[in-house]
Amino acid sequence: KNPIRYVDMTTLASARLRVTGDFEAVFADMYSRGVTDGLPVIPPTEDAVRAMLGTHEPDTLVAMLPPERGPATAEKIAINAVMAGCLPTYFPVVVAAIRAVAEPKFNLLGVQTTTNPVTPVLLINGPVRKALDVNCGRGCLGPGARANATIGRAMRLCLLNIGGCPPGRSEEHT
Fold it and tell me: What confidence tens digit (pLDDT) does each residue in 74-86 have?
């Protein structure tokens, strides 16, 4: 019996994943669909996506992400932030990061379609870094800080799932 059933949401625009408790099957299904970075993800349930959105309107367009010019709406960004393991308090930083990399000066199309191993780096400063407990000191690029790991991962999942450039297929867009 398949523990996964995709149905249309009545209150959000995206399809919903219903989980019956078998996390391994859920991850295997999501992996086979190519919506993960290879690591396990948190299933983006409607309740979790709503909590991530907070007061953001789901249909707010934040950016168009290359190479497929996928519309990065608040809802789509929230889905990827949930999958990455972000806390809802991280969401404004994820939105700001998506907005920043979508600026033409950043050349996200080049980042998304190169065959070289590149990825954006986020620098978070000001009071928000302390409020979110972003590690800005020793070991900041290593394991152990949830904010550091999940904010960057949420951005990467957005680039993968919304931008439409999964690893190994960049040549199709050059």
Answer: 999 999 999 999 9
